[in-house]
Amino acid sequence: MDQEKSLIKKYLTEQVSDRERDFVESWVDQFGEDKEISAEELLSMINSLDRKMGMPPIKKSNPYKRALTIAASLLVFFMAGYAAFYFWNKQEIVDIQSFKAPSSDNAIIVLDDNQEYDLNKLKVGDTIHSNNYHITRLSNGEVCYVVSEESSALVYNTLRTKVGGTASVLLSDGTKVWLNVNSELRYPVQFASNQREVFLKGEGYFEVEKLSESAVKIPFYVRSDQHSISVLGTKFNVNVSKDFETALLEGKVAIGKGAEQEEASQIQFMTNILPNEVYSNGQIIQVDQIEHYIDWKEGYFNLYNQSLKDLSGKLSNWYGIKVKLDPDLADSKLVGRISRTKDLKEVLEIVAEAIPMDYHIANGELIIQKQQNKK
Amino acid sequence: MAKELQLSDEHLYTLVNQDKQNAYQEIYERYKVAMLVYAAKRVPFEVAEDLVQDIFVKLWNNRFTVIIEERIAGYLFKALRNKILDFMDRDENAKKYINSLDDFSNQYSYQYADEKIRSEHFLNHIQDLLRQYGPQYQKILHLRMAGYSNQEIADELGLSEKTIRNNYSSILKIIRSKFSNVLLFLFF
């Protein structure tokens, strides 16, 4: 099979016959031809490319008079509005600027004896000791558990993130979990031999290791107060606070309703989803870009297929501020992506380029309104 | 920018050799969309943007040293095709390409012994892309999103209303459904 791959390499290093060259060129010329790209995706790519190239964006150098006049009047109104806000509400402007992006690993670990440790203070090579185990940060930055003694009793720890922090942890079976802000994962320091069970609040992304004990596959359960997931070896994102929205990247996931107290093995896992599917609100939908569901883990806000209302929810969560959104703006659609390392103010500025809006902070809340100008 | 609009690609490039940035920008505007589409159908969107960017940046950086003897369209797209193949070669998940190459060998027949003929064949494909995604396309997209009617767009571009309506009805459907709120917003 490597034969074909090196065919591309041979082509690139000009070690192919005429026939092979034509073959590769003909192949790549038809490869993906029927892939559909939507108008908004294309427009977003064009704008993104223009920005990267430092080319003046079309709107500003638009030779079409009418668009220019309108753009100019919008600009005037916006500037007038901004100036007004600036002078009357200097305080709010300062407040917006104080909403910085969360730093990673700003979280705490609660041990079984209820001792709390700030993860931030755990540097590479440091260790937190407890009775039969210790927690250490590896040289690659990962936080992992080392169990010194096998014990039959399950000892639980809790990883909790606050507004302003995400965290990730390596569990005893090699499963890796990332937690979004305002989330909590309760997990045993050492998994039981016949099943692996963790409890989630908020949102987490899991890369679960396949595990089997003498040919018997050991399931991994993610429990929340009302739902549960059963998996064998897979990559998925669960957002408990959003109707148990589960997005599957790889593997297979079975979802069932069952309160936390119920025994995992007794729960009926009625719904199965496959990769690139999302379970939400009792329904399963197919998505094109499943990676958008782990945008928070990858460090950006995905805007494709998101309304301004969706984004406001994400902003509220990420920056830790209540958001009041003008209902008339709620359904406005977005495209593209914005880095989550940006401050709230920068993010709002970028969104305002696509959706004209006014925003300010009042009483500790972010208020987003329709732009106050009429033709 | 206006006078560049009249010039052929080849003429524009000779101006690029002479350090004329406006000419370079005009070439960029003419090709960027078609190149993005070609790339984005074969590699991830972000990669597509980067590959196209690389080609144009290199074009400008080498403006004093590179003389292009062939059609500019062919030159740009061949460079793009090469970059795409290079990306595929370095892609960890190469299985999809290997499988596709295998499948393709069943439909493929070696027809073009002559390099010139192969080049023409590729150029035809590019022309189709450019016809569909030339500078007009982006303008129409923007005007549509700004709320212009078919007739107004046709007037602005000097085309018939029918042309706009026929060629771009599919775009309209998508834009109308997803951007209606934004449209309403901008224009009352």
What does the largest sheet of chain A look like? Answer: 9 strands, mixed
Output the structural class of chain B: mainly alpha
Strand content of chain B: under 5%
Question: How far is the first residue's CA from the last residue's CA of chain A?
Answer: 64 Å
Low-confidence stretches of chain B: 169-188
Task: Show the largest interface.
Answer: A-B, 59 and 61 residues
Tally of strands of chain B: 0
Overall structural domain count of chain A:
3
Please sum up the structure shown.
Chain A is of the alpha+beta class. Helices cover 26% and strands 31% of the residues of chain A.
Give short descriptive properties of this protein.
heterodimer; A: 375 residues; alpha+beta; Jelly Rolls; Phage tail protein beta-alpha-beta fold; 3 domains; nine-stranded mixed beta sheet; eight-stranded mixed beta sheet; 8 helices; B: 188 residues; mainly alpha; Rna Polymerase Sigma Factor, Chain: A; 2 domains; 10 helices; 75% helix; 0% strand; globular; disordered C terminus
Describe the model.
Chain A is an alpha+beta fold. Chain A has 8 helices and 27 strands. Chain A has a 9-stranded mixed β-sheet, with no helix packed on it. In chain A, strand 2 and strand 3 (116-118) form a beta hairpin. In chain A, helix 4 crosses helix 5 (90-97). Chain A is globular, with a radius of gyration of 25 Å. Residues 57-68 and 88-94 of chain A have low confidence and may be disordered. Chain B has 2 domains: 1-92 and 114-133, Rna Polymerase Sigma Factor, Chain: A; 134-188. Chain B has 10 helices and no strands. In chain B, helix 2 (21-40) runs antiparallel to helix 3. Chain B is globular and about 50 Å long. Chain B starts with 8 loop residues before the first helix and ends with a helix. Chains A and B meet through helix 1, helix 2, helix 3 and helix 4 of A and helix 2, helix 3, helix 4, helix 5 and helix 6 of B.
